[in-house]
Each structure stands twice: as structure tokens, then as C-alpha cells.
Amino acid sequence: MRTYVRWLLVAIAIALLCLAAAALHRLHRGRDLVSAARSLIAMRALGTPGNGHEIDPGKLVRAPYADAVYVGTLENRYLREISGLVASRRRDDVLWGVNDSGGKPKLFAVGLDGRDLGSVRIYGGVRNVDWEDLSIFERDGRSYLIVADIGDNFEWRRRVDLYIVEEPEVGPDGVPARAPVAWRIPFHYEDGPHDCEALAFDPSSGQVLVVTKRDVPPVLYGFALGASHDASEREAKRLGELVRLPQPTQEDRAEDWLRGPTRSQITALSIAPDGATAVLLTYRDGYQFARGPDETWAAAFARTPLRIPVPPMPQKEAMTFGHTGRTLFATSEQQPSPLFRFDPRDSSVEPAREK
User: Fold this and answer.
1) Among 32, 97, 98, 130, which one is least packed by beta carbons within 10 Å?
2) Residues in contact with 94: Cβ distance below 8 Å, sequence separation at least 6, in sequence order
3) Closest CA to 65 of 241, 319, 251
């Protein structure tokens, strides 16, 4: 009897080891566990003094926008965690949004007042691992959306993906139920995985630009978009650091022992259609950068930005230029999600308070 029990325990132990090995193999697939451990150590280091270049955001020059105007609340209840927002190139009264990680692979059409204009299911080998931003570009007379599956909380994804989708038409009867992926662009960073939530296409250089979320100071990476339907894996090159962006203060460092300082983390990037201006969103505020005619974005992002005060709201994760590049829109990942518009300061529009 004792021998039987002993062999039963051995068999159970072997079975548990096999299950653990299978789980570890599945977990490791496509992920860098060493990088994840390094990231956790680095995240803790952000809680110590001396990391980053402290700038008082309140002392920055204000960007040339009037106070934010509350225009409505996102109406679609399935747009639960909006993490990316971009203005349509086909219509001047439509914004596109996407949900954060784990949601269905859908694009949501939104009116400039938050109205629900419908949703489009994207198909063709698409997964929403961690969708974090949206961008847009035009080619051969067509408009394409870039869905950025670039979130990586543990900084262990060896490769992340961009899904290129021809912008669906928003007509009187709504939007099409489904749309295919035109092509997918996998990419990796030259120095290992990074957690990023901010991506934009630069029409001037033809580059895709990405700004890291957790690095202090944040780092700018980029790579060429390339030819249509070129699905070869790209390598994102390190282009520079955002050394003059407000970094974690002492108060920020003490706010969250688990995630580290978050208010200075970058959650969205948008570049104006003319390629001359960019805005970055953090959990605290927005920041505007201008680029000269012969200047790189690395040089522009190295300068002190202008500050865009954003109304208090939890989880500020989506900001974009409007159709013409003159206005800005921003919203919150947490429902109910208010939609704010930022008009040029010389606008006669009076700011309204959220209802």
C-alpha cells in the first residue's frame, strides 16, 4: 500500500511538472522573461530620487489653445476603454477610436460630439493583445488607419504589431459591419522590449514614430512605414530622448509603490496633417512640440514643450488633432468618457463646463 501511494505521489508530481513546463513554454512564447524581470527592477528604481529632469509643469508656457470645451460623452457603451483616437481623413465630422487590451478587434466611429456612428469588426488574423493608439495616413488617393498593438506592461513582447486598415466609409446608413486588414507590420525595438502607448505617422518623413511610456526620460523610436503591403518585420531605431518633458516629481514617485510614478507617463501621440506640430498626452496634461522645416522630430522633442492644460479626468489615454490640424480632441479611458475639444486661442468659442 505504501509503495502504491508513493508511486501515485510521484505520478502526480510528474504531471504537475509537465503542466508547469507547458504553461511556462506557452508564457515564454513570443515573450522575453528576462526583459520582464529587468523592467520590474527598473520600475522600482523610478521611485528613488535623481531619476529624470524635474520641471514644474505649471511653469511651462501655455500652448496657443483656449480652455477645453466639453462637447459630449462617448455614446457607444461598448467603447469601454478608449485608448486611441484619430480624426477621419474622409470626413471632417468623424473620429475613430479603439478599445484597450483584450477587447474585440473593432474600430468605433464617433461624432465630434461623442455620438455613436457605428463600429467595424476588423478581420484577417487580427488580435487585440494591447491596442494603445491610432494614427492615419494617405497613399494613392486612399486613407489608411494604423492600429497600434504596442502595449507591453511587462516589457516582454519580443515583437509588436501594427494593423493597417483602409479607412471605412461612414455613410447615411452607418458603417460596414466588417473590414479586412490591408496588411500587418510587425516590429521590434533595437534594444529590447518597451512599453509604449504613443504612436503616430509623420507625413513629412514617412516614418512611424513611437514614444516609450515608462522610461525616464521617455525615448523616441522610429522606422519607415515602407511600401504598401510590405509585411516584413521592422526594427525601430532609437532616435533621441525627451529630456525637457516634465518628469516624475517627488510627489509622483511616492504615489504608487506598485506601478511607480504614472502622472508623467506618455499615453498618446498625434502629429498634425502638415507634419509641423505634434502633441503628447500624459496622465497629467498635454504638451505641444513644433518642428522647423529642416528639423527632425528628435531635435524638436528635445526642446521644452508648450503645455496644454487638460481637464481633470481619470485615465487620460487618447488625444488627437482634428481633421484640419487646428483643433484637438481628448477623452478618458474610463466610462463615462467625456469628449473635450481644444480650439485655437484666437477662436471666439467660449469654453463650456461638463454637464
Assistant:
1) 32
2) 87, 88, 109, 110, 111, 112, 117, 170
3) 319
Cα gap 155→264, rounded to integer Å: 18
Give, for all 355 residues of the chain, the pLDDT tens digit: 566 666 777 677 776 765 554 444 444 456 656 655 555 555 544 444 444 456 777 789 999 999 999 999 999 999 989 999 999 999 999 999 999 987 899 999 999 999 999 999 999 999 999 999 999 999 999 999 999 999 999 999 999 999 999 999 999 989 999 999 999 999 999 999 999 999 999 999 999 999 999 898 999 999 999 999 999 999 999 999 999 998 777 676 666 555 555 788 999 999 999 999 999 999 999 999 999 999 999 999 999 999 999 999 988 999 999 999 999 999 999 899 999 999 998 744 444 333 3
> In angstroms, rounded to a whole number, what is the distance separating the alpha carbons of residues 6 and 128?
46
